[in-house]
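Supplementary notes for students who missed Thursday's class. We covered one full example, reproduced here. Read the sequence, then the structure, then the short commentary at the end.
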Amino acid sequence: MSMFADIPVDVGVIYEGERIRWQDAQLEFGGPRVEHKFELVRVRNLDEVEDGKITIIGPDIKDLEKKSYPLGIYIEVAGKELDEEIEGVIERRIHEYVNYIEGVMHLNQRYDIWIRISRRSFEKGLNSLIYIGKVLQRLFKSELPIIEKIQITFITDPEKVKEKFKEAMETYERRDARARGLKDEEVDAFYGCTLCQSFAPTHVCVITPQRYSNCGAISWFDGRAAARVDPKGPIFRIDKGECIDPLKGEYAGVNQIVMSKSGGEIQRVWLYSAFGYPHTSCGCFEAVAFYIPEVDGFGIVHRGFTENTPIGLSFSTIADSTAGGRQVDGFHGISIEYMRSPKFLQADGGWERVVWVPSVILERVKEFIPKDLVDKVATEKDAKTVEELKQFLIARGHPVVKRWEARAAEEAAKAAIEEAKPAPPAIAASTPTAELTVPVSVGAGGFRLILKNVKIHAKRVRIVRVKEK
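Structure (token representation):
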């Protein structure tokens, strides 16, 4: 008997990557229209978890109309081999397992989740979060046998979601802080993740102590724990191999694994640059760093930013240009935590090259920005167009302005050299030239016209075969 015989819709890997458009949806939880949403896993003692228990706090799917709603997914697990280090690993699997359900689309992670349920699956009977809870419980215990007990609470009551949201954010910050301080040079292995390949087939996320996963949900410690618990799973060890370029962050072992896991599509990766061979982007990234050629600097926009950036594009438009497992020069899917890293865009100038960031994100990471730069980075409050951005950067003396001056001086020097070059000698009359012979007919007779040193400009040329008489 199938473990999902009592679920009204099909469950399987075939549904991973399924996209549900709003016009086909019954409703959605989380997403950009909702402020408070999260998924959180906590490890408990065995006597604190009631195995198989599923609780819904607030209205269920069948009680809701077609709108966007807050949602908290709170999962408590217990097992003799479990510890806090595994929480983030289990949490990230929610994305994978929810996407196994026919007619359910799960995007992103942590405080950015976005779940849509299709009208068709709702009409088949998928009208309760209880069904989603059962699928999660069975898949977790089947795929990760170290989980001995699991209970799940779905929170849809807006006030209750808001209350629990605070605990979630504090937990994420505590996990992230644990990974800070460890350097990429101090470990002999990185970790890779292919959880997002259902949406981005050639994407391979490389997780290092100083470069979090793009989604912001998996640290180097999480990667190590996941590879230990499930060695054949989607999170795996990468032997660094030879360091080819420490500034750009290119490693022989990383190149080899990424080439293999991407089916040969991605040959090289520079971990600390948005140019050349930038790290691929999935679709679950928390933010995008995008190059602004007019100011020779980077803007950063996160998923929750609803306005247009100074280049006139929204997050969703920029994200569409970046996602899919591609390497796109000047566009770089990143996590918020990576912005706190000393390796952040290291090869491109780091924070000295960042010129525009939404105020909410700037506030979250400002402790990790050089103090003399914090007030020189523009936000949406300072600049809404490229021209306004230029004026702000000049007024504040942003380091990128010196790059403009250096480039202008270099171009002026080149122009002066070109101007000082002697003029090319005139072409002597004896210089051999091409000769064009054109037969011309006049009346019943004809003569041959020979053209030398002639430039011919023609709007149209017509070639006609003439039959010999």
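Commentary. Residues 13-179 form a domain with the Bifunctional carbon monoxide dehydrogenase/acetyl-coa synthase(codh/acs), Chain M, domain 3 fold (CATH 3.30.1650.10). The first strand starts at residue 25 and ends at 30. If anything here is unclear, bring it to office hours.
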